[in-house]
Design a protein that fits this description.
The protein has 197 residues and is of the alpha+beta class. It has one domain: Jelly Rolls (Sandwich), CATH 2.60.120. It has helices spanning 2-21, 171-179, and strands spanning 23-24, 33-35, 58-59, 66-86, 88-96, 105-110, 121-123, 131-143, 149-159. The longest helix is centred in the first third of the chain and has 20 residues, at 2-21.
Length: 197
């Protein structure tokens, strides 16, 4: 009985410590960067999804699939992801733990997202508790409309404490992710999101 109570107190203490260490990882001020290899509108760049401003957003300018890649400042343990978007119908979330972003693993697939009657979607992809990543990719497979937009991405978690954590820093990977924007598509006409009242 005493051992069981001791274990319970230890678990409670560990949970509290973990909760205290959690923070918002998806902020440009922390060194986080966002890029897209599929769409580029200079008025609505991928960086808008992590700038903390309510009036900015990234918008797609081409055919599906569309994707946005978020490079975290270092390897992190991710507990929760939230996405504020419009027009997404099907999407998957992928992760990469290393600086070499050639290898990706799917952590969530949402086959059909509610269109929210044309208003903002607030999505919370289901992920496992032991998800670790230095990069997170949101891949939009189809949309309810030809154009989709993401207003904000929130990633809650903590950095991974390990002896080789310095090897996992994503600094050099940011330029790699940014350089993949060679396939930018020119936006034409009025590409601002259309809201249905």
């Amino acid at each position: 009985m005493r051992q069981s109570a001791r274990q319970e107190r230890r678990q409670i203490s560990e949970t509290r410590n973990e909760q205290m260490s959690l923070r918002e990882l998806c902020k440009s001020g922390y060194g986080t960067e966002a890029s897209s290899s599929t769409s580029w509108d200079p008025m609505h760049s991928p960086s808008a999804i992590i700038d903390g401003k309510s009036g900015t957003y990234w918008i797609s300018t081409g055919l599906f699939p569309q994707e946005v890649t978020i490079a975290l400042p270092e390897l992190s343990s991710i507990k929760k992801i939230e996405i504020v978007s419009q027009g997404i119908k099907q999407m998957e979330v992928l992760k990469c733990e290393t600086l070499n972003t050639a290898s990706w693993e799917r952590i969530c697939l949402q086959r059909e997202v509610d269109d929210a009657d044309g208003e903002l979607q607030r999505l919370s992809p289901s992920i496992t508790s032991d998800t670790r990543a230095s990069h997170v990719r949101i891949k939009i497979l189809t949309g309810w409309t030809d154009i989709v937009s993401i207003f904000k991405v929130s990633i809650n978690g903590s950095t991974v404490n390990s002896s080789n954590s310095s090897d996992n820093k994503a600094g050099s990977a940011h330029s790699t992710a940014g350089s993949s924007l060679g396939s930018r598509l020119a936006a034409s006409g009025d590409s601002s999101p259309k809201y249905r009242k």
